[in-house]
Amino acid sequence: MQFVMLVRVDPTATPTPDESDPNAWVDVHVPRLGKRLEGNGLRDVETATTVRVRDGRTVVADGPFAEYKEIVAGYDLIEAESIDRAVEIAALHPVARFGSIEVREVWPF
């Protein structure tokens, strides 16, 4: 099964580089419990563009549509045998200690 992990952080959080470094998670924890297919950070939320279509018109806005307490800072696409195993992997992610990890099963078309 594939899962997307949305890495969410409070923009006011100030973890040290060691606290937020995912290398040990990628190299040690994920291979033990599943498989990481892809993962990246995202640029600052100020660089976002929001696209909506309303009444046949495309509406484009700079930045996110609403204010959020947490922003999506990155993502990981993983394979795991179950949601429980995916949650176990997410709990080991360094950002889970000062942010949150949203885990969602991929729903193929």
TrEMBL record:
The source's superkingdom equals Bacteria
Q: Mind telling me what this protein is named?
A: YCII-related domain-containing protein
Q: Where is the YCII-related domain?
A: 1-109
Upper lineage: Bacteria, Bacillati, Actinomycetota, Actinomycetes, Micrococcales
Q: Which family is this protein grouped under? A: Belongs to the YciI family.
The signal sequence is none
Task: Quote the PANTHER family the UniProt record gives.
Answer: BLL7171 PROTEIN (PTHR35174:SF3), BLL7171 PROTEIN-RELATED (PTHR35174)
